[in-house]
Design goal:
With 391 residues, the protein is of the alpha+beta class. The protein contains twelve helices and eight strands. The chain has two domains: 19-47 and 144-326, Multidrug efflux transporter AcrB transmembrane domain (Multidrug efflux transporter AcrB transmembrane fold); 55-140, ACT domain (Alpha-Beta Plaits, 2-Layer Sandwich). The protein has helices at 6-11, 23-43, 50-53, 71-83, 114-128, 142-170, 173-197, 203-231, 242-278, 282-314, 318-337, 341-345; strands at residues 47-48, 55-61, 63-64, 67-68, 95-97, 104-109, 136-140, 200-201. One of its GO terms (molecular function) is protein-transporting ATPase activity.
Length: 391
Amino acid sequence: MARPGLATRLYQGEANINIVGRRKTWFAIAIAIVVISLGSILIRGFELGIEFAGGTEFTVPATSNSQTLTQEQAGDAVAKAVHSVDPDAQIGAAQQVGTGADSFFRVRTPALSTAETEEAKTALVADLGVPADQISDNQVSAAWGGAVTEKAVLGLVVFLVLVCAYLIIRFEYRMAIAALASLLLDLVLTAGVYSLVGFEVTPSTVIGFLTIMGYSLYDVVVVFDKVQENTRGLTAGTSRTYAEATNLAVNQTLMRSLNTGLVALLPVGGLLFIGAGLFGAGTLKDLGLVLFVGMGFGVISSILFAAPVLSALKDREPKIKAHNARVLARRASRSDDVAPRAERTRPANATDSDEVPAFAGTTPRPGARPVAKRNTTNRGGGAGNRPGKRR
């Protein structure tokens, strides 16, 4: 018979991967990554886009009058023009939008006055030798970004309240705490990666953060539903502790979580690496990065963090604590009873050189028939051995 696959063995508990039992290791790794992420956020901060920081945005065509500009040339040209009116201005990197003849570059600068903008635009036209109508500018106020942030925070609070209410009604409050802890870990790690990489925070980034919250909780709810199924009536028996039943649930949903995560990450990876990297669609990288990192961390945290947190919380419950103690006590008594019979029946003064005949003192199996002694007389032979007639 062919050996069952890994998914089948995980579901049946035959290929048991000890995930919950190593929860201290996962907690230590999570704490270390959170410290790194928070350190980057506090020290480096975020690269706020023009929608949040405010400023002026210049749009330069990539191709004009048979002249093709590179991303670096467009950024240098705008920087030179803006520095002619504001030498201390910090110029952002040029972002290419579109491909081919219709592509153009966006370069963001600090907020300039109307007179400074026109002067910089005139210098840019003279430097690149392009018509003035092909170069545009856009003034963005930081108040718009503040309004977006306020709406996003309000949506986040409402979302968390509704999720907590659902998880408490559907499961219990400990599962709600574990799910929210996993979600917050996912958000902090994603924000830390965003800070370390230095991508601009745009409205697309905010949309991505709101999206990964739902995805992260989706996988956690799937795992917790299986945990609830495995732990229903658990305290009535003494076969598994709560941590072991939780670990079995994680194993049973492991392949499903990995397959679902892989299917979700493939199009997002295409959006990030192909759309933004290969085709130069800079507007896609903000959304692609936050989705890719957030979904990846969401799958990992639902497996390695949410279930261990739930197990740690439940192990503090008096009923579960007493049940775990009964299970461990029964196992300890079983281990004491499985000593080899030869060791239990061996005389106290016996030595290793004493030999015991094979099968000596073996107890017959119940229902076994006794073996009759073999007749040593010659049954085949002489006339004296045959029963004679009475004379």
